[in-house]
Design brief:
461 residues; alpha/beta; globular
Length: 461
């Protein structure tokens, strides 16, 4: 067996390779060692990145559920109607529409179509917001369904958040799912067990264990059980989503590294990254030990940019100066919930044994919608539906591809969650980015912002 993380000599690509899709939650574009962080520590992810091609311009939606639905379907959020993190709502909405007005809690118990009243926005908003779907319809031929139809065993471990049963991973083509829950973050009480809602020994007997590391054991079992057949596996971590929790000894360690003059200085967030990095390392070690490293394609991605504002009460609880930001996306502008670069630009890489050149970088802009068709081409899948995305497999092999526009559709107030940006759509192409804020200008006309990202990645001018 090769040393952990070593790269074997280039060999011909496997005809039906395994696939492991690592997706982290709320991880910013420069929150890892391989993307330039000097404070956070991610040795396992960094070693994996050196085996494949790093995307320098990887993009997602501004928030989680739209990115997840896009990965699963190969479609844009504007197509699926999943534009908000509504996958855990009690209200079942399967078709996007225009919001009649802000609901009361009682009104939210019924479907919006049954709510009487006119089309009125609240006094502080100039536009009616869209209503996002809250369930990913099982009518979509999801990535798992297509892999399964092509002879693959499929498993999903970790966060889902695009709908509870009957819209769970089991109804979307996955053979195995743990935990069988649909929470926006880790199930109560958080990242450390026990978890009373997780109906298994893991939930009831996991006191003090970190959830991504527990899920890693499920993923390892799946790998071991399917090492002699092709498999597709999602390992979609709960880290680094709220609640902000980590082991005290790790927090204390990162306190010794924190520089109050640097944007990235939050020891609690750093400790959370380290917990999840450990879990990913365990999963990959199992791949190595099973002799599958050269038969396994890897995708690593994040579902949106990092939170770049304060940690609320979590700082006080852990002896961290109040107001310390969760992370810092500088020089990019904004963070989670923004259509600015800090909200949508994420870390990403792909390992394709026998094809990708270790340590190579790809400057072609890629989007969540492109990952499904890319994996389909790599694995030679048949019976693909019509997708919005396109395969970037040629770029992974070192060939030049023409850039295509990337759209970000966020028809809601609250960009950055607490900064109140207007509903908007952005389009990016050939170094330029145009944002259209709906009804936000004089006389409720649309307002536009144009940036030249090639010269101004921080969107300052």
């Amino acid at each position: 067996m090769l040393p952990w993380g070593a790269q074997a000599a280039q060999a011909a690509p496997v005809e039906k390779p395994n696939v492991i899709f690592f997706l982290m939650d709320d991880l910013g574009w420069n929150d890892l060692g391989f993307t330039g962080s000097k404070f956070y520590e991610s040795p396992n992810i960094d070693r994996l990145s050196r085996r494949g091609v790093i995307f320098t311009r990887a993009y997602a939606a501004p928030i989680c559920s739209p990115s997840r639905a896009s990965i699963l379907t190969g479609l844009d959020p504007a197509r699926t109607g999943f534009t908000q993190p509504n996958g855990g709502d009690k209200l079942e909405v399967l078709k996007a529409c225009v919001q009649p007005r802000i609901y009361t809690e009682e009104e939210r118990r019924t479907h919006w179509q049954n709510i009487p009243g006119g089309m009125h926005a609240p006094p502080n908003q100039r536009a009616l917001q869209a209503v996002s779907v809250s369930r990913l319809s099982t009518e979509y031929p999801s990535i798992a369904k297509i892999f399964k139809a092509n002879g693959y065993r499929t498993g999903h471990f970790g966060k889902w958040h695009v709908g509870p049963s009957p819209y769970s991973p089991l109804e979307h083509g996955f053979d195995v799912h743990a935990p069988h829950l649909n929470t926006p973050g880790p199930p109560r009480p958080g990242h450390f067990g026990p978890w009373p809602d997780w109906e298994s020994e893991d939930g009831s007997q996991a006191a003090g264990k970190q959830i991504d590391n527990v899920l890693a054991q499920h993923a390892i079992k799946f790998i071991q059980e399917n090492k002699d057949r092709p498999f597709y596996m999602n390992f979609w971590t709960f880290g680094v989503h709220i609640p902000f929790q980590a082991k005290k000894e790790l927090i204390d360690y990162f306190k010794t590294k924190a520089d109050p003059k640097c944007g990235q200085r939050n020891p609690l967030y750093a400790a959370m990254i380290k917990h999840t990095d450990d879990a990913i390392g365990q999963v990959w070690q199992a791949v190595e030990e099973a002799g599958l490293a050269e038969k396994t394609v890897v995708v690593f991605y994040s579902d949106n940019g990092a939170v770049n504002w304060g940690m609320y009460g979590f700082c006080k609880q852990n002896g961290i100066p109040e107001g310390t930001p969760v992370s810092d996306n500088s020089p990019l502008r904004g963070g989670k919930g923004d259509v600015y670069e800090g909200g949508v630009r994420v870390p990403g890489f792909v390992i394709w044994p026998g094809v990708t050149k270790p340590g190579a970088k790809c400057d072609l802009p890629v989007n969540t919608r492109d990952l499904f068709p890319t994996l389909a081409e790599i694995c030679g899948l048949k019976g693909l539906p019509k997708l919005d995305g396109r395969s970037v497999a040629p770029a992974l092999a070192g060939r030049v591809m023409q850039e295509q526009p990337i759209f970000t559709y966020y028809p809601h107030y609250g960009g950055g969650w607490d900064k109140g940006n207007a509903p908007c759509t952005a389009v990016m192409l050939e170094g330029w980015k145009l944002i259209r804020f709906y009804f936000d200008g004089p006389d409720q006309k649309d307002r536009y912002e144009l940036y030249h990202l090639a010269n101004d990645p921080g969107e300052t001018t």
